[in-house]
Amino acid sequence: MSKKVVFLDIDGTILDHEKKIPESTKDAVNKLKERGVIVAIATGRAPFMFQDILAELDIDSYISFNGQYAVHQGKVVHENFYSAEQMEQLMEFSSKSSHPIIFQSVDEMRATVSDHPQIESGMNSLKKAYPDEDAEYYKKVPIFQALLFNEAHEQTYYEKNLEQFRFVRWHEYSCDVLPRIGSKAHGIEQFINELNIDWKDTYAFGDGLNDLEMIETVRYGIAMGNSVEELKKKAYLVTDHVDDDGLSKGLKRLKLID
């Protein structure tokens, strides 16, 4: 019999709006594991940005960088990083508009400039420190994701000129830069195929625009009550707000836990 697997977004799904894990979520994750359900994080964050969450929930499987890097029980099962040439193209266009970038590797991140207010705002929303500056970081290590800092109306410029990338907004001043085929769903597909899990036993919870493909790909896609409206329209069901035990309540509605 195929094992069930539940993929959980982090911000707005696992973490409440105080960036804390509700006790109901910890209890729900423990109950899932007791029932033999595989629990995996599925996030746009880089792995070094959520090691504390993995430890607190005792989880060792995840999809990170919006699908570009997948791990099952500590073993890498999928990775897709950018070439230096691809990052050069992004840099060329961003420099014309003085839009800063953060390059993310598995272990750390670096910014193209120091003391930029948009980067400061974005990092503050994640409760992360401003990265060190290194505009040539992409030449030194594999880069799995870039964060481009600009405003929403400026994103169209990149979409028209850099069709090899996808730009998915996660903050007022920032969007994730992904490969054209990049998404949490793509990473989940690699994960599912590696573990030979039946798609009828796949579940996912999310709240943001970068969760759209994931919600549509798994058999049961659940939108948190605090989700963007686009996600709610695509979801199998909409659970309660993250601050009102939404994850736990959703799992109970699915009869995955009591």
UniProtKB/TrEMBL annotation:
Keyword terms, alphabetized: Hydrolase
GO MF: magnesium ion binding; phosphatase activity
InterPro entries: Cof, HAD-like_sf, HAD-SF_hydro_IIB, HAD_sf
Cellular component GO terms, alphabetical: cytosol
Keyword Transport set for record: no
Domain of life from the UniProt record: Bacteria
Pfam families recorded: Hydrolase_3 (PF08282)
NCBIfam families hit by this protein: Cof-subfamily (TIGR00099), HAD-SF-IIB (TIGR01484)
Protein name in the entry: Cof-type HAD-IIB family hydrolase
UniProt organism field: Gracilibacillus oryzae
Organism placement in taxonomy: Bacteria, Bacillati, Bacillota, Bacilli, Bacillales
